Amino acid sequence: MTIHIGAKDGDIADVVLMPGDPYRAKWAAEIFLTDAKCINEVRGMLGFTGMWNDKRVTFQGSGMGMPSMSIYANELIRDYNVQTLIRIGSCGGMQPGVKVRDVILAMTASTIASPSSTIFREVNFSPCANFDLLAGAVQAAKTIDVDLHVGGIYSSDTFYDERPDLNEQMQRHGVLGVEMETAELYTLAARYNRRALAVMTVSDHLLTGEALPADEPERSFGDMVDIALKAAFA
User: Fold this and answer.
1) Angle at 197 between CA 130 and CA 90, to 5 degrees
2) What are the boundaries of each domain within the chain?
């Protein structure tokens, strides 16, 4: 048990999938796991552990933004010895060829600032995905009907962004999408020698303004969860 996670020793699996929304963790556990048990309710940040294809898996909400992700990833790694952490969530598309409902695998994650930024001082550390997880996710995506993109993303520390000039530079340099957690997750995984990957569904688009209806995200996110689970155990 930690400050933010009420799970007992042994309640959390070695593989943890982390949606930002705790109710998405509940949804994923109900859809993908058997014998799922709620192992965390502290501050409403729900977590569930169960079985997927005879493999033990935990879905644990991370909250929104890099500071919240840092709290949960740190505690999962340091107190529960989690070995594999996969972010499953939504992102905004930033390239013309990236469409709403497509899936993005984040090979790298750029950011202006994260909770770990002060550690590096003048160094611009480049956080990246675990290669084995990334390769496994690419192979998993080939088994289902999904449009996949692999490349760099941008982890923003603001949701209501007022920097169109920055977005233009991200687009110019091929950044596929924008979200708010991955750069810190990848940095912590590097620090503690753990495996990490971000698998994201494009829920809206910065160029076109298109967005998934409010009642549709869960139905569109199934492919993303399927890919993440297969990659974790590839």
Assistant:
1) 160
2) 15-232
CA distance 173 to 204: 20
147 is catalytic: no
Q: Which CATH number fits domain 15-232: 3.60.15.10, 3.40.50.1580, 3.90.320.10, 1.10.530.10?
A: 3.40.50.1580
Q: Is the dihedral of CA 59, 14, 153, 221 positive or negative?
A: negative
Tokens (6 digits) for 176: 């596929």
Annotated catalytic residue, options 204, 215, 223, 226: 204
| Cα angle: 95, vertex 99, 100; to 5 degrees | 125
Per-residue model confidence (pLDDT) at position 61: 98
- Record the tokens describing residue 161, joined without a space: 């962004």
Contact present, 226 and 205 (Cβ < 8 Å): no
pTM listed for this prediction: 0.96
Task: Kindly report the average pLDDT of the chain as a whole number.
Answer: 95
pLDDT tens column, 181-196: 999 999 999 999 999 9
Taking CA atoms, 166 is separated from 48, 94, 175, 223, in Å, by: 38, 12, 11, 30
Burial per residue of 93-107, b for 16 or more beta-carbon CB atoms within 10 angstroms, e otherwise: bbbeebebbbbbbbb
